[in-house]
Every structure is written in structure tokens, then in C-alpha cells.
Amino acid sequence: MNRRTLLKQTGAAVSALFAGSSILGKLTPRALAQAPVQPPVPLATTLSSSSPFVLPPLPYSYDALEPFIDAETMHLHHDKHHASYVEKLNAAVASDASLSHRSLKSLLADLSSIPEPMRTTIRNQAGGHANHSFWWPTLGKSGSRAPEGDLAADIKSKFGSLGAFQDQFAKAASSVFGSGWAWLNLDSDGGLHIETTANQDSPLTTFKTPVLGIDVWEHAYYLKYQNRRSDYLKGFFNIVNWDYVTAEYTKAKDCCKVPKGPSIG
Ligand code: MN3
């Protein structure tokens, strides 16, 4: 999808949303569920984009993850929180000409090159945009209920079993103090590692490729679960779109494989 199409589709989605808001005031769950559904924007497209950054549409309806994540949370999380990261990122980039042509990935992968007064803002807002853009398409209730192919084999090899991986992942997510994320990352050495980041710090900043993530900011679960983060975590593996995650993992591994050179005498 090119940028013009994306802008057009996002514009249509936003127009429809605001049209609904003005009529309904507070959107009802039924209205939330009827928001237009768009196909997922490839993460590579978002990461290679530069200013002005665009909020990718959710690739499913707001209620698609019920009962594990409620429609109202999805509406606020995507249309308010994620939109705010995009808006603030655009404002920050617009205020410094040296940033105007840099891609989202290059901003995050080279934070030290960003002028000091802007660095924390870019770290937070670009990280928020990248993390959420990565996350939405990895969620869903349809399709396989477990990873397949290379990802299934690599999880088993690294963690012993899918269940053991899920336990370790949930434990890492529960250990995040305050706001942050837990990740399953693919390292540049080709290994899988569970890690956590604070705030909106992105795995891209430390040259990792995220494979799976979970947002443990309170805005991700508080409306439904209040302070019970562990209940939110228990439901998480019911809403992982393993088909998408497996396909993206295979692409990431293929991309980073070092081709064998000619053998030397
Ligand atoms: Mn969030």
C-alpha cells in the first residue's frame, strides 16, 4: 500500500469515526464494532515511512479481541493513545529540519544522532508509534492457536516447549515495574530472547527484531482489569495471531541469514 492510499484509507476511517462521535457522543460498543476494518499495514511500510507519520488503521474491529480486550479499551488505545504518539512525533520532527527525512526505523536505531533537546521526545513518541504499529497485527482470535514452522521449532529449542515459553513471557510481563512492554525478540545473532523495555523504548534501538510483544501500560488493560495485570496476561495467549507472527518471523529470519560465501581453498 503506498502512502497516498494509506492516507486516503486512514482519512476515511477517521472521518467515519468522528461522524459517529458527533452523532452518538460517547461511542457505544455496537458503534465501535462497526468501525471500518482495514487490512494490516506491513510493519516494514511503517518503519520505512518518514514525516508526516500516519496512524495505521486497526486491522480488525474494535471488539475483535473480546472478551480478553474490550472494545472501549481498543478504541481508546488505538484512536487516542497511538494517535497521540503519531501526532507528537510529527510535531517534534516538524520542529527540527535535520529529522524531516528520517525514517521511523532510522530515528529509533540511531537515537544518539538526534539533537539532545529532541532525543527523549523522539525516543518516546517514535517508540510508541513503532511499538503499537508492530503490535496490532500480531493480535487476533482466528487462525492457528500455536506457532508453526521455524518459529515453533525455535521456541521449542530455546524454551523447551510452547507452554514453558508462555510462562516465561508472562513472568517477564508481570515483572515490568510501571509502564513498559515485554518482548520475544530475534537478536542479530539469530537467537530468541525474552526481554522487557520501559516506557516506549523499542527493541529496534538495541538492534533486535520484535517477534511478539505485550503492552503492559495500564492504558492497555485498566478499564477491564483495573489493577489485575495478571488476569490480562492470562488472557493474552488467546488473542495472539500466530499465523501472522509465524509468517513475519520466517521473513525476519530469511532477511538476516548470512549467505554462504565461496569456500576458501
Ligand atoms: Mn499502549
Any overview of this molecule?
With 265 residues, the protein is mainly α. The chain contains 11 helices and 3 strands; from the N terminus they run ααααααααβββααα. It has helices at residues 3-24, 29-33, 43-48, 71-94, 104-109, 116-135, 149-159, 162-175, 222-225, 229-236, 242-256, and strands spanning 180-186, 192-198, 209-215. A 3-stranded antiparallel sheet has the order 2-1-3, sandwiched between helices. A hairpin with a 5-residue loop joins strand 1 and strand 2. Helix 4 runs antiparallel to helix 6 (116-135). The protein starts with a helix and ends in a 9-residue tail after the last helix. The site of manganese (III) ion has 7 residues, from helix 4.
Structural key phrases:
2 domains; three-stranded antiparallel β-sheet; disordered N terminus; 265 residues; minor pseudopilin epsh fold; single chain
Q: How much strand?
A: 5-15%
Kindly give the count of domains.
Answer: 2
Helices and strands, in order, run as HHHHHHHHEEEHHH
Give the CATH topology of the largest domain: Helix Hairpins
The overall strand count is: 3
Which strand order do you get reading across the main beta sheet? 2-1-3
Please identify which CATH superfamily of the largest domain we are dealing with: Fe,Mn superoxide dismutase (SOD) domain
| Shape annotation | globular
Helices, by number, come to: 11
Which CATH class of the largest domain is shown?
Mainly Alpha
SSE class? mainly alpha
Determine the N-to-C terminus distance: 47 Å
Bound molecules: manganese (III) ion
What kind of sheet is the major sheet?
Answer: 3 strands, antiparallel
The CATH architecture of the largest domain is Orthogonal Bundle
